[in-house]
Amino acid sequence: MMTQINKHLKKAQKGEDRGCCGIPGIPDSRFLKAVSDSTRLRILAHLVEAKKPQIVSEIAKSFPIDFSVVSRHLAILRNEGILLAEKQGKEVYYSVRYEFLSSIFRGFASAIESCCPPKERENE
């Protein structure tokens, strides 16, 4: 999985990543689907507020859903490169990959602005 993320980042750095629509900076649909789920967004917000990596059981305590459902959401976020999962002994600690998320959203904002400059948006 990490090689897939690294490949994506290297392409983006070289300007070779054309995004999902052939437009540089537009994230693919899997990434957008991962961040469009309200539970996953709440999990992300929880990890940001925690300010430190957490294990599944710590995260699950904050949500009224089954442990296995939280674990599945974490796997989706990890697979899209949004979360980092680090194994320490028997536990897996999850944390937000801030640099990766920032680069994705900056690229997305740039792609939108290049298609619709601020001057054009003012007339809407």
TrEMBL record:
Residues 20-116 form the HTH arsR-type domain. InterPro entries: ArsR-like_HTH, HTH_ArsR_DNA-bd_dom, HTH_MetalResp_TranReg, WH-like_DNA-bd_sf, WH_DNA-bd_sf. Keywords: DNA-binding, Transcription, Transcription regulation. SUPFAM superfamilies: Winged helix' DNA-binding domain. It comes from the Bacteria. One of its GO terms (molecular function) is DNA binding. This is HTH arsR-type domain-containing protein. It comes from Candidatus Sediminicultor quintus. The lineage of its organism: Bacteria, Pseudomonadati, Atribacterota, Candidatus Phoenicimicrobiia, Candidatus Pheonicimicrobiales.
